Amino acid sequence: MDVAATADALEEELRAQGSPKRAAGEKRYLKSDLTFHGTTVWQIERSVRSFTVEQPVEDHDGLVAFVAELWRKPVHERRMAAVMLLERHRQLLGVGDLPLLERLIRESRTWAYVDVLAGDVVGPVSAGVPGAGEVLDRWATDPDLWLRRAALLSQLRPLRDGAPLDRFLRYADAMLEEREFFIRKAIGWVLRETGRRRPAEVAAWLAPRTHRASGVTIREAVKYLSAGDAARLMAAYRARRPAE
Fold this sequence. Notes:
By secondary structure, the protein is an all-alpha fold. It has 15 helices and no strands. The protein has helices at 3-17, 20-30, 41-54, 60-72, 76-88, 98-108, 111-126, 132-140, 145-153, 156-160, 166-175, 181-197, 199-206, 215-221, 227-238. The longest helix has 17 residues, at 181-197. The chain is globular, with a radius of gyration of 20 Å.
């Protein structure tokens, strides 16, 4: 594959599907300084799928080279396509690719890329792999809020598959009183999804912390708990005290 020519061809296809009005709206919504063509997520996904059928990505180095070329230009659709390629071919990645993923997360500066990279790429790539935990521990204390968010969201898939809650809860406890919305929302999101299958564990962890949690966090976290637990935890949150 000629990665430069292929990346440019993919961008031209995406540009042709976009609209200036949508481009302006997305740029405002994401508060981004990137160039936007106004192509929808579904159009990008469809084009990426078509390209990988016509020109299959079959090896690790080819994937990394294509992603790097797409990411190189400050164009939203190219970067979204790069993220989707990593998601579609995450089986080609390993713990040795965490530095690459860290760089992309640092350069993302928006949930639009970070959430997929963290939840659908970093999570599966790092789950249960020796050495990955130390990397995620470092991310969880990094000054970059997007890297901290990625550390939290990287636990979504492992927890869904039955992994212990310890690592996520350690991260969440350290970040629980942060004022940054995207951190508060991420903690609530992971607790909410974990609460679908493990409500007792989520309720037990939240109970002594309701006075520390933000409204964004706790409203998300109680969504799939029993009505009784949800009411008890919300009442304690409103009273700014630990739940009984």
